[in-house]
Specification:
alpha/beta, Rossmann fold, five-stranded parallel beta sheet, 51% helix
């Protein structure tokens, strides 16, 4: 009987297609589809914050502090001494993002919500009409929940802030926010601007650490300004 002898090179060329197909099949079986696309989507900071909120064992809160990084930046529970208060600020949030996550706030059945939002709409170039529409929708929803809502005007930036021309846009937006408040008499206005800005209309330098966000002194002013309302609605 004649034996067929194959060199290593011939063996590789003969079995390479079958081997490649087998490897591909194994990879398909072993790796789930989500693992193959895991690098396609990285969680955003908003996803991270909302993920933490979802882990919270707090099922209800008398007071919710709601907004963007200006709200997120303070440990409100400790600053106010209110044991029934939660911070639902998310850095980078816009009016649309707050509106999108309002169901999460509603589940807490708050007696009062303190809201400051809008500066990121300006930095992201959101049309003022869209911002105001979102604000109206937020206030409508909170009022329907019989939640006492306090809406704060957007704070100015400092004169040293790199984009201090934002102040003109902030002033214009606040003028329109006043109109939205007039449409919602059940919502109370919180105006911290006279307490935080100088004669030039800019946020006082000592009340901010970067021109936009507040320093501890700035948060002390905010805390003291809302202390009567916090005391009223905080369930101790």
């Amino acid at each position: 009987m004649r034996r067929h002898m194959f060199s290593p090179k011939k063996l590789r060329s003969r079995f390479a297609p079958a081997l490649a197909a087998a490897v591909a099949a194994i990879a398909f079986i072993v790796l789930p589809s989500h693992a193959q696309s895991a690098s396609d989507h990285k969680p955003s900071y908003s996803d991270y914050r909302r993920g933490l909120f979802a882990l919270s064992k707090v099922q209800s809160a008398a007071i919710v502090m709601l907004g963007d990084s200006l709200t997120e930046g303070a440990p409100w529970h400790e600053l106010t001494g209110c044991s029934d208060l939660v911070n639902r600020g998310i850095g980078g949030d816009t009016t649309q993002r707050v509106l999108d996550r309002l169901d999460e706030v509603a589940k807490l059945k708050p007696r009062a919500v303190f809201l400051m939002i809008g500066v990121n709409d300006i930095t992201r170039g959101v049309a003022p009409a869209a911002t105001l529409g979102n604000l109206r929708a937020i206030l409508d929803r909170l009022e329907a929940l019989k939640t006492r809502t306090f809406l704060a005007y957007v704070l100015p930036v400092t004169a040293s802030y790199p984009k201090k021309d934002f102040n003109d846009q902030i002033t214009a937006l606040n003028g329109k926010i006043a109109g939205v408040l007039a449409e919602h008499p059940a919502t109370a206005a919180i105006d911290l601007r006279p307490l935080l800005r100088g004669a030039d209309g800019y946020l006082r330098e000592e009340l901010s650490f970067d021109g936009l966000h507040l320093s501890p002194k700035g948060y002390a002013v905010w805390r003291d300004a809302i202390a009567p309302e916090v005391a009223e609605f905080c369930a101790r």
